[in-house]
Specification:
The complex is a heterodimer of chains A (about 110) and B (about 575). Chain A is α+β, with helices and mostly antiparallel strands. Chain A contains five helices and four strands. Classes of the chains: A alpha+beta (about 110), B alpha/beta (about 575).
Chain lengths: ~110, ~575
């Protein structure tokens, strides 16, 4: 895994791979997507990659990432895996959950 | 049972559709199974067997009823789960591979999750929906959904979502079991019984006197009659079985057929030359009076008639019984080999009474014997009420199936009934008491019939011996001081034999004397006769001489006259 990370050079430049699970175009889903985009632009401009997974389209993916609550945001890279659930309206908690806040403090 | 089931159906008009669990006994006491298309809550504390119940429901559904299932585990991982239930003989992996079962492990680690804003459990719905649709599942088990409360904050959202989930399951039309951990003062720790209220089962695992008994109770069953008692259930290598309801009515089938006791002398003591088929027989006796031997003789006779026999042994191992019975000429080995005889041995302390009962019931259902021996019931120790309840139910089960049963019971000295005896004596149709009679420095075994319902029977005390060709009854010897047994009987017999001999000799002697007398008299008579004859001969000779002389005189006279006449 770590080999893959360095070869793609995602962690070296501190970029984030984020996957957001939603189910359909519900207000909650849309809100979460909007919140995530805004947050990334503000704190991770240029070094993030967002993948939105709609479980209504690909339900088989839910089990693999142990999705129970929706929306769920997963930081797949850099490791370790981090997850935040909810519509991401509390920006502070998202930043702590994704380990962005602490990194900024460093 | 069937009758009751019909009654329920009539009362309801249209009977609630039910989904059989395939668990012996549970389907009987719920009159068909769990409510089809509705969720059922199964709660109980840790170690009650909730997971195994759930898995059994699914495995039976897939195997026997053609209904695929989904097992959503919130606690055990799929791998652990399939290993754990393998002990019940369930091959989960094979069912999964065959597309008849989906096992999904839902893992939530609170420490890994950050909450930010509102969420719902749509992810769970999606997973469940996907799992159900992928195999066309009709049955779902959620084990234990309350784990969500530990993994997620905001119980308000959780509760709302769970309510939605159960409604959704209903809409989906799947028959679901939702397990829940037993809580303080309520059925489940988080009170989810509020949302799942169509059918609630309560599992319990109680330890009394260091013995554990698992019990099941149907707390509620909306729209259906159900058994209301606590029923023991059993989990072992053969799966789960619940003990069915005891028949409340005394409506056992009655037979007039006689079944041999296996001991000819004992048959003769019973008015109908044996026990009634389907009756219960209590054989009580002191240690070493041959209770097991009588049991074995009974079994031997039944097997020889080609009937199936089940021998519950609580004190000896089957091998030991077979060996010991060999010594009295009862060859059980051949019956074991022919499959007519089966032993079920267990230490009484292994389970609680209820568990034993459940186990025995299951064995009886499986083996379908016509003769059962329980050796001995006195092995059960515990509160008399429980023993009583257990034995009544056992006797009821056996009677309702027309099985002739012999219960043996070890009695203590001084003719005091043991707890077991006292509690079952009134249930028994025939009661044979074996005891020891001590006299002249030895013990001898005697038998008598305390009672035997529905037949005239011998009221005598009879001595018996355990010989190398089985139990042998000996004719009663009633002396001036009661029944004589053992050497006393032998002595008495010898004494009478001597008296007989003496009498015979006396007769003989008198006969000889008479003969001698007759000979003497006859000899005397003969002697006198010969004397008489000699005298007669003498007289005859004398008479002849006299006649001769007279003749000569006459002749002379004639001659003389002639001479004279010539001259004249």
């Amino acid at each position: 895994m770590s080999v893959g990370i360095t070869s793609e050079g995602l962690t070296e430049d501190g970029s984030y791979n984020l996957r957001l699970y939603v189910a359909g175009q519900t207000p909650k889903s849309l809100l979460a997507i909007a919140n995530l985009k805004k947050l990334c632009e503000e704190h991770l401009a240029g070094r993030y990659h967002i993948e939105v997974v709609d479980l209504l389209v690909t339900p088989q993916l839910a089990a693999g990432d142990q999705i129970v609550a929706l929306p769920t945001l997963i930081r797949t890279l850099p490791p370790p895996l981090k997850r935040v659930i909810g519509d991401l309206s509390d920006t502070e908690k998202v930043l702590v959950g994704l380990d962005i806040r602490r990194r900024d403090l460093n | 049972m069937d009758v009751q089931h019909d009654e329920v159906g009539i009362e309801q008009g249209v009977a609630l559709p039910k989904t059989p669990t395939g668990i012996d006994g549970l389907d009987a006491l719920t009159f068909g199974g769990l409510p089809t298309g509705r969720p059922t809550l199964m709660c109980g504390s840790a170690g009650c067997g909730k997971t195994l119940f759930g898995m059994t429901f699914l495995v039976n559904g897939a195997r026997r009823f053609g209904e695929p299932g989904v097992f959503m585990s919130f606690e055990e991982r799929a791998r652990d789960l399939s290993v754990n239930v393998a002990s019940l003989g369930y091959d989960v992996d094979a069912l999964v591979a065959a597309g008849k079962l989906v096992v999904d492990h839902v893992h939530i680690e609170r420490a890994e999750i950050e909450h930010s804003g509102e969420y719902d459990l749509e992810g769970l719905f999606v997973r469940l929906n996907h799992a159900i649709d992928s195999v066309g599942a009709k049955r779902v088990v959620l084990d234990t959904i309350e784990a969500l409360f530990a993994g997620l904050e905001d119980t308000a959202i959780l509760r709302a979502e769970l309510r939605r989930l159960f409604a959704w399951l209903k809409d989906k039309g799947v028959t679901a079991i939702i397990t829940g951990e037993r809580g303080e003062g309520q059925l489940t720790r988080y009170g989810i019984e509020e949302y799942v209220s169509d059918c609630v089962l309560l599992l319990d695992n109680r330890v009394i006197d260091q013995v554990t008994t698992r019990r099941l109770r149907v707390v509620k069953y909306r729209g259906s009659a159900h058994g209301t008692n606590e029923y023991p259930f059993l989990i072992d290598g053969e799966g789960i079985s619940v003990l069915p309801i005891t028949s409340a009515g005394l409506a056992h089938p009655v037979s007039h057929e006689a079944v041999s006791t296996g001991v000819p002398g004992l048959d003769a003591m019973l008015g109908i030359k044996g026990f009634f088929r389907g009756s219960s027989i209590l054989l009580s006796g002191l240690a070493g009076t041959g209770k097991s031997t009588f049991g074995a003789a009974f079994v031997d006779a039944a097997c020889r008639r080609g009937e199936r026999c089940l021998f519950f042994a609580f004190e000896e191992s089957p091998g030991q019984i077979v060996r010991n019975m060999d010594s009295v000429g009862i060859k059980l080995r051949t019956h074991l080999d022919s499959g007519l005889l089966q032993f079920e041995a267990a230490r009484p302390s292994l389970y609680g009474f209820e568990m034993h009962l459940a186990r025995m019931n299951r064995d009886i259902e499986r083996f379908k014997p016509s003769v059962v021996v329980v050796d001995p019931i006195s092995a059960f120790r515990g509160p008399s009420m429980e023993i009583h309840a257990t034995l009544i139910r056992l006797a009821d089960i056996l009677k309702s199936q027309g099985i002739t049963t012999m219960f043996t019971s070890l009695s203590t000295a001084n003719d005091q009934m043991s707890e077991g005896e006292r509690s079952v004596s009134s249930l028994m149709d025939t009661w044979i008491s074996l005891s020891d009679m001590e006299a002249n420095g030895e013990r001898n075994r005697v038998l008598y019939l305390l009672k035997s319902r529905g037949m005239n029977h011998s009221k005598q005390l009879r001595e018996y011996r355990l010989t190398d060709h089985g139990v042998e009854m000996i004719d009663a010897y009633v002396g001036p001081h009661g029944v004589l047994t053992g050497t006393a009987r032998v002595v008495q017999e010898a004494r009478e034999r001597d008296a007989d001999l003496a009498r015979q000799q006396a007769v003989e002697r008198r006969r000889r004397e008479l003969a001698r007398k007759r000979a003497a008299i006859e000899r005397e008579v003969a002697e006198k006769m010969s004397l008489l004859e000699a005298e007669e001969q003498e007289i005859a000779t004398m008479l002849e001489q006299d006649e001769a002389r007279e003749q000569s005189i006459t002749d002379d006279r004639v001659r003389m006259a002639r001479l004279r006449g010539d001259s004249t």
